[in-house]
Design goal:
The protein is of the alpha/beta class and about 170 residues long. Helices cover about 45% and strands about 15% of the residues. It has one domain: 3-Layer(aba) Sandwich (Rossmann fold). The site of 5-O-phosphono-beta-D-ribofuranose has 11 residues, from strand 3. It holds the Pfam family AIRC.
């Protein structure tokens, strides 16, 4: 697999460094799929101006998809989606003071009409990365080829384990 562009196409942002252990899965899968990305911390509540500036300039900087992870009262994905026209994928992070993660899930999922956030499962940053690649793959043949190889590998692993357990 090879990637032509090295300019970041996916922006991975999160509300706190404490989200990084979860969000690392998005980083890792984008590396596997050879999709160029950038990573930074942007807090909706603690650094609202930084969030606004990031969302406002992302498209002009060449970003095509934003992955935003946050926990608790997780307003980051929704607020970013309200500022940019780019697709935003929200990752609800189960933070340490979370009510089982429902706070994160519902605050990212329940967006008002007109401002969608594509919400993945709790802590599912890997799926957010794959979805971002799939969005880019609609207009990039190499990314599509990488995704097809990635999914073939997933299928092969299932076949392998099926053989192991079959009696
Ligand atoms: C949210 O609050 C962050 O996204 C994080 O999930 C949570 C806890 O943040 P820290 O107190 O660990 O910085 O804004």
């Amino acid at each position: 697999m090879s990637s032509v562009s090295t300019k970041p196409l996916v922006g991975i942002i999160m509300g706190s460094k404490s989200d990084l252990p979860v969000m690392q899965d998005a980083v890792d899968v984008l590396k596997t799929l050879e999709v160029p990305f950038e990573v930074t911390i942007v807090s909706a509540h603690r650094t609202p101006q930084r969030m606004f500036d990031y969302a406002k300039t992302a498209a002009d900087r060449g970003i095509k998809v934003i992955i935003a992870g946050a926990g608790g009262a997780a307003h980051l994905p929704g607020m970013v989606a309200s500022i940019t026209h780019l697709p935003v994928i929200g990752v609800p992070v189960k933070s340490s003071n979370s009510i089982d993660g429902w706070d994160s899930v519902l605050s990212i999922l329940q967006m008002p009409n007109g401002i969608p956030v594509a919400t993945v499962a709790l802590n599912a940053a890997k799926n957010a990365g794959i979805l971002a690649a799939q969005i880019l793959g609609t207009s990039d043949a190499q990314t599509t080829a990488n995704l097809i190889a990635f999914k073939a590998d997933l299928a092969a692993k299932v076949e392998e384990t099926a053989t192991e357990v079959e009696q």
